[in-house]
Each structure stands twice: as structure tokens, then as C-alpha cells.
Write a structure and sequence with these properties.
Layout lengths: L1 H7 L4 H16 L3 E7 L5 E8 L3 H6 L2 E3 L3 H9 L3 E3 L3 H7 L10 E9 L2 E10 L7 H60 L1
Antiparallel strand pairs: 1-2, 1-6, 2-3, 4-5, 5-6
Helix pairs in contact: 1-6
């Protein structure tokens, strides 16, 4: 609930997601974590926050196909996915992290009222899948974070609409002012 309140207060999204990832990683025993938002085109997942990923992997993971691997399964099927086969990730990154430094990935969808907003990943060096109790908590966190992200999007849309309205109002005032000035000058030149 703190994250939801901070998002509503307009706090920095990346900082909040960093704060969110740390306790979730500890709870699940993960060595790294990432949050991905659905791109505007609905075809990509954009990395917006991460902890513990090597720099080259973080760069290669900035934007991935929303249907790729464990992330794609979590996004497409709206379910938590535990993956041992990281070959899609390894092929994309061409590095030694997936399959060596990371042997398992957990992908959790971020949804609000059935609409996918993104996913979060937890990366494990060597571990068994989290217990049903931990998975239940991770799912609930995904739902709460989905609600918080939905509210953040609504707030951003409201801010954009307010700014647009203010710009239109200012443009109308400038237009009226110029028109009035021109009319005064025209009247003055006609009476002269």
C-alpha cells in the first residue's frame, strides 16, 4: 500500500519500483529482479526498473517482444510462470548470464481488471520454484502493483489533459488579444 500511496502522490516511478523489488527479491530468495511495462504498441515489454542484472544484460533487455519466453507466457496467459529453459533469453542477450549466472526466471503479470500493464521478473541462480504460499504473495503483489500502475497512468493522462487545456486556453487568449489589438489599429487607421 505504501507504493500505491507514493505513486498517487506523484513519486518517481523508477525509484518506487526499485523499492518494491528489494523486499520481493528477499522474500523469494532471488538474486536479481526487473519490472517491465507493456509498450505503447502492446507488442513490447519495456524494462523500467531492475536490480542485480549485469550492465550488458540490462542493456540487452531494455525492450523485448511481449510474446518471448517466460515473460511472454506470463503476459499472454495472465499467470505466474516459473522457467528453467532460458534459451530464448540467452539467444537474445548472447551472454553468459542466462543459463549460468541465472538458471531460473519467475515472471509475474501486472494486471488491473484483466488488462495487462506489464510483468515483473525474479532471477534465480539456483533454486527450487517458490512455495505456493510465496507464489500467492507474489501474485497479490502483482495485482496491487497493477492497480498502482493503472492509477499512475490515469494521473499522467489527467495531467496531460490539464496541460493541453491550459495551452488551448492560453492560445485562445493570445489570439483574442492579437485580434483586439489589430482591430484597434485598424479602427485607428480608418479614422485617421
Amino acid at each position: 500500500t505504501e507504493i500505491t500511496a507514493d505513486l498517487a502522490a506523484g513519486s518517481d516511478l523508477q525509484w518506487l519500483l526499485q523499492r518494491f523489488l528489494e523486499p520481493i527479491m528477499r522474500l523469494a530468495g532471488a538474486q536479481a529482479g526487473a519490472v517491465r511495462m507493456l509498450g505503447e504498441d502492446d507488442r513490447t515489454l519495456e524494462l523500467i526498473s531492475e536490480i542485480g542484472l549485469p550492465a550488458d544484460i540490462s542493456g540487452a533487455e531494455r525492450s523485448v517482444d511481449r510474446h518471448c519466453g517466460a515473460c511472454g507466457a506470463a503476459a499472454d496467459e495472465a499467470r505466474i510462470v516459473w522457467a528453467d529453459d532460458l534459451s530464448p533469453c540467452a539467444q537474445r542477450t548472447q551472454g553468459s548470464f542466462f543459463g549460468r549466472g541465472c538458471r531460473h526466471v519467475l515472471a509475474v503479470p501486472l494486471q488491473y481488471r484483466g488488462k495487462l500493464l506489464g510483468i515483473y521478473n525474479l532471477f534465480f541462480i539456483d533454486s527450487d520454484a517458490p512455495s505456493a504460499a510465496i507464489t500467492g504473495v507474489l501474485k497479490s503483489v502483482g495485482e496491487l502493483l497493477g492497480l498502482a500502475l493503472h492509477n499512475a497512468r490515469l494521473e499522467a493522462e489527467h495531467l496531460r489533459a490539464t496541460v493541453m487545456h491550459e495551452r488551448q486556453t492560453m492560445a485562445a487568449e493570445v489570439h483574442d488579444s492579437i485580434a483586439q489589438t489589430l482591430q484597434v489599429q485598424l479602427d485607428a487607421s480608418l479614422s485617421a
